[in-house]
Amino acid sequence: MKERITVFDIEVLNQDPASICAIGIVELIDGEITSTYYSLIKPKNLSYDAYRYKVHQIKPKSLYKEKTFSEVWQEIHHYFEESIVVSHDIQGDMMNLRAAFKQNRIPYPHLYMSCTNVLAHLVYPHLHKYNVKELSLMIGFNFQAHQALDDAKACAQILIEMLKHEDCSTITALHQKFRLEFGEMKENYYRNIISAEVAPQLLEMNERTDSLLYHQSVCFTGKLSMPKEILEEKTKQMSGLPSHQVSTQTNYLVIGKEGYHKVRFGKENKKVKKALQLMKQGQDLKIIHENEYLKLLETKR
């Protein structure tokens, strides 16, 4: 069966996460570029943002006659449905796509997610910088930064070079080599790939594949019964991934037993508020009591 990968990049017009103003797509089938796509997009919010304009040089007035996101989605949905989708900041790019889906009442397509930034931290663990520009220079690929199609082409070339470097014929094989799970999106469900920041932990951690916490991102809040550092170490021993912030990668938010109900059902804890927001958006995230988590540490799949 052929492996189909959609590598993409987007540009955002302003601080509205749904204000996607350009998208570039490169389709790979069995490691070969088979098609590309580029379009400007007219978002509903056309506010000017000086910072973002400096990055991509796209002015709101240049978008007045462009297609809307819904119109562009009709042209590109086949690239995303039942595909492995890759970008260099998949967490951020998917956040923008999800916002655009919600704004335009478009159901989530079913897809799997990977990230060249995460993979680069595993394939090239000793680099100082992992941005698209630096990685492209390293592999000898010249491109125009912050032009969505050129960025997507650069990302595709980085992926192709990493596959060659690790002697893998598919991105699935590359993920298996590093025991890295794909993210997944489908209707009313969203589970992200791990972040680039925690990816190096995969190179060092104990491989407890039988652990229920295997490659699960765990964040702690509230007053715990033991030092957080001890719980984080126990998490690592069970092949879990401790994190200090709730994000689109978080699988569990653990609340300390002391004052649990006030933290869980009050309105002041920022981590709980963030977790509830992500859960409402379909993220596979659980908020649990510290005692329940201690049991999970001993639970096998």
Highlighted features:
301 residues; alpha/beta; Nucleotidyltransferase, domain 5; Rossmann fold; 2 domains; four-stranded parallel β-sheet; Ribonucl_H
Question: Can you describe this structure?
Answer:
The chain starts with a strand and ends in a 5-residue tail after the last helix. The mean pLDDT is 93. The longest helix has 18 residues, at 148-165. It is globular. The chain has 301 residues and is an alpha/beta fold. It is built from twelve helices and eleven strands.
- How many distinct beta strands? 11
Write down the overall mean pLDDT.
Answer: 93
- The CATH class of the largest domain turns out to be Alpha Beta
Q: What profile does the largest beta sheet have? A: 7 strands, mixed
Radius of gyration: 20 Å
State the fourth-level CATH superfamily of the largest domain. Ribonuclease H-like superfamily/Ribonuclease H
**Count of separate DSSP helical elements:** 12
Across the major sheet, the strand order is: 3-2-1-4-5-6-7
- Structural class of the secondary elements? alpha/beta
CATH architecture of the largest domain: 2-Layer Sandwich
CATH fold descriptor of the largest domain: Nucleotidyltransferase, domain 5
Number of domains: 2
